[in-house]
Amino acid sequence: MHTRSQRKGQNLLDPQYVVGFVDGEGCFSVGCSRRADVDLGFTFTAAFEIEMTIDDMEVVKKVHNTLGNPGQVYTSIFKRYPRWKPHVKLKVSNIKDLTEKIIPFFEKYQLQSKKRKSFKIFCVIVKMIQQKKHLKLKYAKKIVAMRNTMNPTGKGYRKYFAVQLGSRSAGNPLTTPDRIKSGPDRYK
Questions:
Q1: What phi, psi does 151 have (nearest 5°)?
Q2: Residue 100's domain spans which residues?
């Protein structure tokens, strides 16, 4: 009897294996970064990621293949930390790949852990970004508020809990004004 991957001649994993793997090792995240070329002064990036030590490169490649080859798989070597093993990472941040491959896969094969809640919020945020709503201050504030509920115990929560949109003061969290400042003093 042939498995699904043998029939298709591809190196595919069982979708339920991928779900379990992502439940343990995957990450749905939304980042906020400063951008001088954007009216609001910042932009959002949604991403799906899996990062493992280089020893697990084959399984990460198989997950990538099973998901339809979205994003890219690459390796990282940490020169600053010579004792760390090199890592392999699958990162999908392209909105088209997220909406056409990642989200449909995990809607069909549902996550079982607390990551399911993060995924549902992630889907709403990705849709807002796809519709360009993130370019308006009121929606940007909603995205930050939703993002802060995705993983309240993770390091991103500490980083973005104080995120308030509008200011770009170096070293301090972004602060939210009631309106967007403009002109040369907008960064003060």
A1: -145, 80
A2: 4-187
